[in-house]
Design goal:
Length: 641
């Protein structure tokens, strides 16, 4: 398969040392001595008896944000420590998962083991391992009934321990573990720890292993080459085993080869990944049966969508347009099938984990453009809304956002989605394509349609586009345009539903200011305020604050009366005596003729005194000031409550 860069470590002791086991040497670079020690000890499986050695085991871990696959070889003791106890040395290599799946073929456990065994572990530089190609014929030859059952039981999420197999040599046990892994999608090796021997008395993280006695901590006990199935085996495991039994000879070899191409990372702890593996095998087995010479012959299953996407990604990365064109035909066929929401989610997770970045020389490629068009049909259901477009930016753009450029081929593919997209989706797609495309889409939308899409989408970018376009249309030199914008804003409640659901308090005030200014192009008069609030029940406090920021001089009474009237309507108190009392109280609060304090008014009613004498000019000024302060205090109290 080629050469892989492998980092390495040696776990053990030095002769006559009194120290415990530790990493005594390791390569320099991506993984530190401490990290090697941590991961090696995380996948130990108890004390090994000499008859269990040499022991080969695999492990997995993440370092530097990347997944790694490791393999260790624990050899028989040939030295003693300071306490005269024999100790075993463990030799360990690990490679990046991305490097494992990037080659022309997958890597088997045996290939890694043979490459490790050939190294002398000297110096401090990483190794360049030469691995043999993934040999599906050899792997298929190792498959027996126990291997099929072990693969099926792994899909239950519980570990599997094979017993009564002490007669097998270590390399025979390793071949078996390799064969079991080969009966599952290759991506499961991403989280598969196996071992040619474990100590069942110890709890460990090994998922598939051999042991002398059954474990006691929840693993499946699987006797070697036992014909009887345990009654406790779940139905889904029995079904997967039954499907595997349909493949024999060359058909089994082809199946192993196909499963080896499914390299997308999968997790045994993820129920959906385990269920997807079962669906893959059942679906392709039912499609692949054909009659030949009076016998049932199983054809190799057709590639899965994930497999095709991986191959397309490789073709784009290597600028193989002819190969990509052929793959597009297969992918388009799958896109025409019924694609469930769960399928779309699975494909999108794959694309996020495996971003597709066409090289510059393919910027004008028709094959790449066709690929993206097919891909969009696979990932998203029609019609596309604004939320779908934003998810598309995350799925296909990675770190890109609306303000960053995307692949020209992707933009071209997106343009074909415009006619079938929802209005909010059309706006965002056109925005991505540039101002010229956006103006074309906006030109055919009425003011009412603009406001409607802003309210329905509740999308920040759509809201920004709509307010900017409304501002462009509502020109003082075009009274008809201003009236159309003002009517549309009023009909859609000044976009309150959109702004209140998108923006925080301070930003909401600023957005409402923009909307009110676009609709009126001046400071708001008393008539404007009454008109705006006339049909708004319980407007947000941020909206009222925006009105205050744009209110013309002398409009405080109108705002207070209108707010009070709205509260009366909301409480169904219009026309009641209380409403009349509130109106009288507001008139008194805002009256320039004063009215004294409450005690004076009550005293006047009791003694029958006439109207108070005229006040001085200074008194009038003070009274006017107090009216404004009272009105402001009333507004503040209303907003606070």
């Amino acid at each position: 398969m080629g050469r892989l860069t492998a980092h390495w470590a040696i776990l053990g002791k030095t002769p006559e040392s009194l120290d415990d086991y530790g990493v005594i040497r390791c390569s320099a670079g991506a993984i530190s001595n401490a990290e090697f020690g941590m991961w090696l000890k995380a996948f130990t499986s108890g004390t090994m008896e000499p008859k269990a050695l040499p022991r080969v085991a695999t492990s997995y871990f993440a370092a530097g944000g990347e997944p790694w696959l490791g393999l260790s070889l624990q050899r028989e003791p040939d030295s003693q420590d300071g306490f005269h106890r024999p100790y075993a040395m463990t030799y360990y290599v690990c490679v990046r998962w991305a490097d494992v799946i990037a080659g022309p073929s997958a890597a088997s456990y045996r290939a890694l083991y043979e490459a490790l065994a050939g190294e002398d572990f000297s110096g401090d530089a990483p190794f360049r391992l030469s691995l043999t190609a993934y040999d599906e014929r050899h792997l298929a030859a190792q498959v027996n009934g126990t291997a099929r059952r072990a693969a099926a039981l792994l899909l239950t999420g519980r570990p599997v321990c094979v017993v009564r197999a002490g007669h097998l040599p270590p390399e025979g046990r390793l071949d078996f573990l390799d064969a079991v892994a080969a009966l599952l999608p290759y991506g499961f090796r991403h989280t598969l720890a196996v071992s040619t021997w474990t100590n069942s008395a110890s709890r460990h993280r090994i998922r598939l292993s051999f042991a002398e006695v059954p474990p006691t901590h929840g693993a499946w006990e699987l006797p070697w080459e036992a014909d009887d199935r345990s009654a406790s085996f779940p139905p889904q495991a029995l079904l997967y085993e039954k499907e595997l039994e349909r493949y024999q000879g060359d058909d089994l070899r082809d199946l192993v080869g196909w499963l080896g191409t499914l390299v997308e990372p999968r997790d045994f702890d993820d129920v959906s990944d385990r269920a997807a593996a079962s669906r893959l095998l059942r679906g392709h087995a039912s499609e692949g049966v054909a009659a030949y010479g009076g016998q049932s012959v199983v054809r190799p299953p057709r590639p899965s969508v994930e497999q095709l996407l991986h191959q397309c990604r490789e073709s784009i990365a290597h600028a193989e347009e002819q190969r990509l064109g052929a793959l597009n035909v297969q992918l388009a066929e799958r896109a025409r099938d019924r694609v469930t929401d769960q399928d779309r989610k699975t494909y999108r997770v794959f694309i996020r984990a495996n971003p597709i970045r066409p090289p510059e020389r393919l910027s004008g490629s028709a094959a790449v453009r066709d690929f993206f068009e097919i891909l969009l049909r696979l990932l998203y259901a029609a019609p596309m809304h604004a939320a779908d477009v934003e998810e598309m930016l995350v799925d296909l753009g990675g770190q890109h956002r609306l303000e960053h450029g995307l692949s020209p081929a992707l933009l071209a593919a997106m343009s074909k989605l415009l006619p079938a997209s929802a209005p909010s989706g059309r706006l965002l797609i056109a925005c991505l394509q540039g101002s010229e495309h956006l103006h074309k889409v906006l030109a055919v939308m009425s003011e009412d349609e603009l406001c409607h899409v802003a309210v329905r989408s509740r999308n920040r970018k759509v809201l920004e586009i709509v307010i900017t376009e409304a501002d462009r249309r509502a020109l003082p030199t075009d009274p008809r345009g201003m009236e159309a914008v003002r009517y549309a804003l009023a009909r859609h409640r000044y976009l309150i539903e959109a702004i209140s659901s998108i923006c925080a308090a301070e930003e909401s005030v600023l957005r409402y200011q923009d909307v009110l200014w676009v609709g009126h192009r001046r400071y708001l008069t008393s008539a404007d305020i009454k008109e705006i609030l006339a049909d708004l029940d319980s407007p947000p406090r941020t909206f009222l604050l925006a009105i205050m920021t744009l209110g013309a001089p002398g409009t405080a009474p109108a705002l207070l009366h209108t707010m009070a009237g709205g509260t009366m309507r909301e409480l169904s108190m219009t026309g009641t005596p209380v409403a009349d009392t509130v109106k009288a109280g507001l008139d008194r609060m805002l009256s320039r003729d004063g009215g004294g304090d409450g005690r004076t008014a009550r005293h006047g009613r009791r003694t029958g005194l006439g109207r108070l004498a005229p006040v001085s000019t200074l008194g009038k000024a003070l009274a006017g000031t107090s009216i404004v302060l009272v009105a402001a205090a009333a507004l503040a109290l209303w907003l606070w409550l």
